[in-house]
Amino acid sequence: MSLLIAMFSFSLAMSISPGPVNMIILSSGASYGVRKTFSFVSGGTIGFTLLLLFIGLGFSKVIDSYPYFLKYLAVAGSLFIIYMGYLIATSKPELDIKEHNQPTFLQGFLLQWLNPKAWIACLAGTSLFSVPNSSKEFFLFSFIYFLVCYLSLFTWSVFGDKAAILLNSKFKLKLFNYVMGGGLIMTSCYLLYSQLY
């Protein structure tokens, strides 16, 4: 029972804490609502779970052999997150939302594979909840993480949807877009700086 609690606690702490994916979901929830953000939430959850399985079933050994891989990934991921931040910051503050700019399943999926926070969470989780010569615990952890991640990301979309009540003017919506996009860009710039210096 204590192992299940540890798995749940780790999954919740890593999934619910603010990060690039959660910020995009919050912004999308505010702009498009929960229902139209659900595909991005699904992409993020499935993308993360497959990344966790990919690392846990052997790729962590490759990372140990090539430590610079994570540095290159952090640079590529930071640039992609900067691009997503730019899209959010420059999106039109329209109260009658059009669907052509809403985040997609594929963007959610790819963002997890390019998100340094996701890689670190997967590596840490794999090292904590893997047992030599048995994959039972790791698969249980992956299943728990899948459920917790889905609920956590969905919660961020609900927060965004509720925040939309306050965003009842073009000025407020534009300010919100600037803050969310700028926050993503600053987070990514910090990640880039920490990897390069």
Give the key terms.
single chain; mainly alpha; 8 helices; 197 residues; globular; 0% strand
Describe this structure in words.
This protein is 81% helix and 0% strand. The chain contains eight helices and no strands. The chain has helices at residues 2-16, 20-32, 34-65, 68-89, 105-114, 116-128, 136-163, 170-196. The protein starts with a helix and ends with a helix. The model has no long low-confidence stretch (mean pLDDT 83).
Quick recap of the structure?
The chain has eight helices and no strands. By secondary structure, it is an all-alpha fold. The termini are far apart.
- H/E order of the elements? HHHHHHHH
Rounded to the nearest angstrom, the radius of gyration is 17 Å
Helix content: over 70%
Judged by helices, strands and strand pairing, the structural class is mainly alpha
Q: State the major sheet.
A: none
Spans of 5+ residues with little confidence (pLDDT < 50)?
none
In terms of quaternary structure, the protein is single chain
The chain-level mean pLDDT equals 83
The proportion of residues in beta strands is under 5%
Number of helices: 8
Number of strands: 0
Structural domain tally: 1
Distance between the ends: 43 Å
> Based on CA inertia axes, which overall geometry fits?
globular
Give the SSE layout.
Elements: H1 2-16, H2 20-32, H3 34-65, H4 68-89, H5 105-114, H6 116-128, H7 136-163, H8 170-196
Helix pairs in contact: 1-7, 2-3, 2-7, 2-8, 3-5, 3-6, 3-7, 4-8
